[in-house]
Amino acid sequence: MAGTRLLGPLLLAALLALLGGCGSGNGGTTAAGASGHPQARAASGGKGGSASFIVPGGDNSVQEFGREASPGEREAASRILQGYLRARAARDFGAQCAALAQSAVEPLEELSAPRGSSGRGKAACEAALQRLAGSRPGPADTMTGPIGALRVRGARGFALYHGAGGIDYVVPMRREGVLWKVATLEPVELG
Length: 191
Hints:
Blueprint: H1 2-5, H2 7-19, H3 38-43, E1 67-68, H4 71-89, H5 93-99, H6 102-112, H7 122-133, E2 149-153, E3 156-162, E4 168-176, E5 179-182, E6 188-189
């Protein structure tokens, strides 16, 4: 199916756009190859925030990106991300579109627009998500609690959370006005 073949490149493009220029310069693996395994958490001394996601000797460019958000800002972003992941699992395309940043919605609108037209808006976003999802059930919600860290620089951010099965995830976020929005279609495993 042509729509699902575009999902991978869309996700990769969104993540790379947010990662651009935020390297830590310490070499190692890529952010997607970093590990949030229990030994990495133990090495951080069990501290909260992004320290619990640091991978000794790994590429920690996401974990060290910008600054740690305030607790209030982290909680607000966490509510948006939790709502998005629940809506995704329930195949509630309208709620998903409401939680997505405009930078994630625009490619979806283009995907759903008939050739030669410029379909925009909520209906175009929902149609594209439905097309990408096909008849498959919604993916499992991997979030088991609030996000553990929100790293921010300007309007860009990365939400990090400890997910189901001990797997750590990162989700690019974008601030639009006073709200944080989800800037990609699915979480990326850190390990």
